[in-house]
């Protein structure tokens, strides 16, 4: 049997990133697709697969206003394979699904996309009604919402506060995720709608508290944008002009799928899994782009992926120099979601590819990086991609 | 019970009804496997340990320990009283089970990991929401 073809990211694109954008969310999606096609040197006629997370979300359209089905129809994509759904291992699970399709020979060039429109939707309740309609709650939400635990800040906060009270994490240590993101965002022209001025430790320490241990700067904010990655088969690389980046390993594990029955979130199960499918080791990683919808998520990823021991992540980032752009392990070099907006998982993979190609401009990390990890998700949701320019 | 507000209530169904209505009888009811005695929460129609579908609702003592907790300051909805504590409670006699709830009846800053707590119930419509109070606390009833 022939060896399954490897999967590569061959094009990346992003729409304008803003807060309360007026542009139609399908058009934002198409903006990002056009940029990714141009980057890859492909035409829409060469695309034969589509993958997205979480699919169109009618309950709260701003969370996901565009589905794979509508996109296929809108652009006349002749899809041989497609998928869009929320019950996968988190946002970048859509990329893992595309890798599976590529390796099985079901598609050659897959558009993977995530469009977010939450800021615009909140400002336009006529076209985008609120998700809270006063009705009864069911499913996983019933174990949180009746206790006023309405926001993921509370669900993630439970794990973060355990790090504070059991393992001694200080606010100054936690702050390093937001401070690093802000410093990097200042060098990212696409982050200007989110980060206008560099965050200082004093700003952080005096900020309004949201939910312990999180202050305002530990929480990402609603953003409007579309992000696209084109994933292509190894045997289709001769059709592509951009430097391909190999998806060298990938994992998305969950043990108990809920927010409160586990001691360690899904990142801790996913991290070890990614190293089972590759010869690369944790020491080979040149940079990490780790989910920071809440600052603490990035710490769970550092621990879960094995960069430090469980319960020790706050020591690893203490002082911030290790994770700075010129440090030993640069983190969230575009600003992350805290600094560059809630692109919801896809921004981390986009930035990893940009950096591995050496196209980061002012924010490019030094030392010609070749291996990066992009990770999405928090709580029971976790996906990690190991990306390599080899 | 301090003044509360209209909370978001669960849609009752065949799996969760015992949990959300046991308070009417003063009982915190957690599902349990009738064959291997494993506690099952959130309630499912089958045991995750032995795959038996002989599951029953069992009244537990309602005593527990704070496993982790946060102080929430943000008013997420109009009229929502803040600040409040959300805690994950490890139940004494349902090993391996946590219940997310609120610790009420004490200053929010006073709740610590390891605090001993006891269930109390807040009735809204036909739902009895299990909340927890510290045991042996002399902090008084003010605050939430
Ligand atoms: Zn059993």
Structure write-up:
The complex is a heterodimer of chains A (390) and B (144). Chain A is built from twelve helices and eleven strands. Chain A folds into two domains: 7-127 and 223-239, Thiolase/Chalcone synthase (Peroxisomal Thiolase, Chain A, domain 1); 149-220 and 248-388, Peroxisomal Thiolase, Chain A, domain 1 (3-Layer(aba) Sandwich), CATH 3.40.47. In chain A, helix 6 packs across helix 9 (295-304) and helix 8 (267-274) packs across helix 9. In chain A, strand 10 and strand 11 form a beta hairpin. In chain A, the strands form two sheets. Chain A has a nine-stranded mixed β-sheet, sandwiched between helices. Chain A has helices at 25-40, 68-75, 93-103, 118-122, 152-167, 171-185, 201-205, 267-274, 295-304, 313-316, 336-340, 346-356, and strands spanning 7-14, 49-52, 81-84, 109-117, 209-211, 214-215, 224-233, 245-251, 287-290, 371-376, 383-388. Chain A has 390 residues and is of the alpha/beta class. In chain A, 29% of the residues lie in helices and 16% in strands. In chain B, the strands form two sheets. A five-stranded mixed β-barrel of chain B has the order 4-5-6-8-7. A three-stranded antiparallel β-sheet of chain B has the order 2-1-3. Chain B has one helix at residues 17-21; strands spanning 28-33, 39-40, 55-60, 63-72, 84-91, 98-104, 116-124, 127-134. Chain B has one helix and eight strands; from the N terminus they run H-E-E-E-E-E-E-E-E. The termini of chain B are close together. With 144 residues, chain B is mainly beta. Chain B has a single domain (17-136), classed as OB fold (Dihydrolipoamide Acetyltransferase, E2P) (Beta Barrel), CATH 2.40.50.840. At the A-B interface, helix 5 and strand 5 of A face strand 4, strand 5, strand 6 and strand 8 of B. The structure holds zinc ion (ZN). Residues 33, 35-36, 38, 47, 49-50, 52 of chain B line the site of zinc ion.
């Amino acid at each position: 049997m022939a060896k399954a073809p490897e999967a590569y990211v061959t094009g990346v694109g992003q729409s304008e990133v803003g807060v309360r954008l007026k542009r139609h969310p399908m058009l934002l999606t198409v903006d990002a697709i056009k940029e990714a096609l141009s980057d890859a040197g492909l035409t829409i006629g060469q695309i034969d697969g589509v993958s997205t997370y979480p699919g169109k979300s009618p309950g709260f359209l701003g969370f996901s206003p565009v589905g794979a089905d509508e996109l296929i129809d809108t652009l006349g994509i002749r899809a041989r394979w497609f998928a869009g759904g929320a019950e996968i291992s988190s946002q970048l699970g859509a990329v893992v699904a595309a890798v599976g399709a590529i390796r099985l020979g079901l598609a050659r060039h897959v558009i993977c996309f995530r469009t977010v429109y939450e800021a615009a939707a909140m400002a336009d309740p006529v076209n985008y009604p609120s998700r809270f309609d006063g009705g009864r709650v069911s499913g996983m939400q019933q174990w949180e919402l009746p206790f006023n635990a309405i926001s993921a800040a509370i669900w993630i906060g439970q794990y973060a506060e355990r790090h504070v009270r059991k393992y001694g994490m200080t606010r100054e240590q936690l702050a390093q995720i937001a401070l690093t993101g802000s410093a990097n965002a200042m060098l990212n022209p696409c982050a200007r709608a989110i980060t206008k001025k560099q965050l200082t430790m004093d700003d952080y320490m005096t900020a309004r508290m949201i939910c312990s241990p999180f202050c305002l700067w530990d929480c990402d904010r609603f953003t409007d944008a579309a992000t696209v990655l084109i994933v292509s088969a190894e045997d289709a690389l001769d059709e592509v002009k951009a430097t391909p980046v190999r998806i060298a390993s990938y994992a998305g594990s969950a043990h108990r799928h809920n927010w409160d029955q586990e001691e360690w979130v899904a990142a801790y199960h996913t991290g070890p899994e990614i190293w089972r499918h590759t010869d690369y080791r944790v020491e080979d990683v040149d940079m990490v782009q780790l989910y920071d919808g809440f600052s603490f998520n990035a710490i769970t990823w550092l621990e879960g992926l094995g960069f430090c021991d469980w319960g020790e992540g706050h020591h690893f980032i203490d002082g911030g120099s290790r994770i700075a752009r010129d440090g030993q392990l640069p983190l969230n070099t575009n600003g992350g979601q805290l600094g560059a907006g809630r692109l919801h998982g896809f921004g981390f993979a986009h930035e990893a590819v940009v950096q591995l190609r050496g196209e980061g401009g002012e924010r490019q990390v030094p030392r010609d990086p070749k291996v990066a990890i992009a990770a999405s998700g928090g709580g029971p949701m976790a996906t990690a991609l190991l990306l390599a320019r080899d | 019970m301090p003044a509360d507000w209209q909370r978001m209530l669960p849609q009752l169904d065949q799996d969760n009804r015992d949990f959300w209505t046991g308070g009417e009888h003063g009982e915190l009811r957690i599902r349990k496997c009738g064959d291997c005695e494993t506690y099952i929460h959130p309630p499912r129609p089958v045991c995750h340990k032995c795959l038996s579908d002989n599951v029953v609702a069992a009244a537990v003592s309602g005593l527990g320990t704070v496993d982790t907790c946060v102080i929430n300051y943000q008013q997420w909805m109009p009229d929502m009283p803040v600040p409040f504590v959300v805690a994950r409670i490890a139940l004494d006699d349902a090993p391996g089970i946590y219940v997310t709830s609120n610790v009420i009846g004490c200053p929010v800053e006073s709740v610590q990991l390891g605090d001993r707590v006891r269930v109390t119930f807040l009735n809204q419509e036909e739902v009895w929401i299990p909340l927890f109070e510290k045991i042996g606390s002399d902090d008084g009833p003010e605050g939430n």
